[in-house]
Amino acid sequence: MKRLIENQLMFGGLLTIDEPHLIDRYNKALKGFGLKPVDLTSFQIDMTGFSPEVAMELEDDDYLDPKGVNRRFIILSPDQASLPVVHTQFSNTEELMIDFFEKNAREIFAITIKDVLFGEIEDSILEVKTIDDLLAIEQVEFKLSTASDLLAQSARLRVLMERLVKDPEAWRDNDMLNQMVELAKVTGDIRTNQLLPREVVFRHNAFWTAHFGGVYIFNDRNKLTVIADPETRGFRRSRPWEVAYLDINNQAQVYRFLLESGRIDPPRGSWIEKTGLLQQRARMLVINMMSNEDPSFDPEGVSNAQLDTWVKRNSDFVENDGALLLLQFAVKQARNWSNIDMAQVRPHHRFLISRANPEHDDWWLTNRLISEYLPFDFMTLFVFNKQGFYKSYEKWPDPYREFVVNELRSDYMKDKAGLRARLYA
Question: Domain-by-domain residue ranges, the chain?
Answer without folding.
Answer: 2-148+195-203, 250-424
